[in-house]
Automatic annotation (TrEMBL):
SMART domains: AHS2. It comes from the Bacteria. The keyword Hydrolase applies. Keywords: ATP-binding, Hydrolase, Nucleotide-binding. InterPro entries: CT_A_B, Cyclophilin-like_dom_sf, PxpC. It comes from Streptomyces prasinosporus. Pfam families: CT_A_B. Residues 27-289 form the Carboxyltransferase domain. SUPFAM superfamilies: Cyclophilin-like. This is Biotin-dependent carboxyltransferase family protein.
Length: 289
């Protein structure tokens, strides 16, 4: 039994293994998946001394608790949360040394949604289609963490950063999403598109890694007919029959039959990963490049 491993003491509400995903397989019906807040995950890896493509843990709201079998360096980023080692407060947003057998406790998010836990050497579960990411839609990759599970760790390749705390953007009080109209904006009335880009929406509690769902004004379609299934991209804003926009995130389906009114700029999607239920959402139309 290798000592390069983590035992899961508390799995939390939803904790998954994620890396930068498995792009290039949409033709097989496989989403990209991967971390929802890329900058936060990259920072965690950098602080822990890992390469940017090392697999990390992505927690959801309630954090997790882990016991390493050997001494490791960890870093927690993303949603602000209390961090403790054997019950003693430890740093968030900075490298932390955890001895073998000690318990790292990543607490519930005080704001935001998802925290990222990088461990020196990276989470070394078996890759599937070139990625270690958990894909909740297709079921590829490792299952979400459960209490008592054991995760293998890789061999550390670099030195951890030497900082007291790394600056990070705060989770949004208002989520502003810049969108490029189309490809199916003509399936909606002009009044509906004006409402989409001027009225207030909020993040729905039904949101998940597949999509950020919203509550707010229903968008009226100009065409009642059915749209044949077509390819979907990360950030697509699909409008299902209830008329409330859904922003597709990392585990989104690769095809869909509801019209896409717009597509969110990639730079705005990390904010969507940290927008808690009830957060105001504003869609801002920008010109096609």
């Amino acid at each position: 039994m290798t000592d390069r491993a983590l035992a899961v003491v508390r799995a939390g509400a939803l904790t998954t293994v994620q890396d930068r995903g498995r792009p290039g397989h949409a033709h097989l019906g496989v989403p990209r998946s991967g971390v929802l807040d890329g900058p936060a995950a990259a920072l965690a890896n950098r602080l822990a001394g890992n390469p940017p493509d090392a697999a990390v843990l992505e927690t959801t709201l309630s954090g997790c608790a882990l016991r390493p079998r050997s001494a490791v360096t960890v870093a927690v980023t993303g949603a602000p949360c209390p961090v403790a080692v054997d019950g003693r407060p430890a740093a968030w947003g900075a490298p932390v040394r955890v001895r073998a057998g000690s318990v790292l406790d990543v607490g519930a998010a005080t704001s935001g949604v998802r925290a990222y836990v990088a461990v020196s050497g990276g989470i070394a579960v078996e890759p599937v289609l070139g990625s270690r990411s958990t894909d909740l839609l297709s079921g590829l990759g490792p299952a979400p963490l459960t209490d008592g599970a054991v995760l293998p760790l890789g061999v550390p390749r670099g030195r951890h950063a030497h900082v007291d705390v790394a600056p990070q953007p705060a989770p949004p009080d208002e989520l502003v999403l810049r969108v490029t109209p189309g490809p199916r904006d003509d399936w909606f009335t002009p009044e509906a598109f004006r409402a989409f880009t001027s009225r207030a929406y909020r993040v729905s509690p039904a949101s998940n890694r597949i999509g950020l769902r919203t509550t707010g004004p229903a968008l009226e379609r100009a065409r009642p007919d059915e749209l044949p299934s077509e390819g979907m991209v990360l950030g697509a804003v699909q409008v299902p029959p209830d008329g409330r926009p859904v922003v597709f995130l990392a585990d989104h389906p690769t095809t869909g039959g509801y019209p896409v009114i717009a597509v969110v700029r990639p730079a705005d999607l990390p904010g969507a990963a940290q927008a808690a239920p009830g957060t105001p959402v504003r869609f801002v139309a920008v010109r096609r490049r």
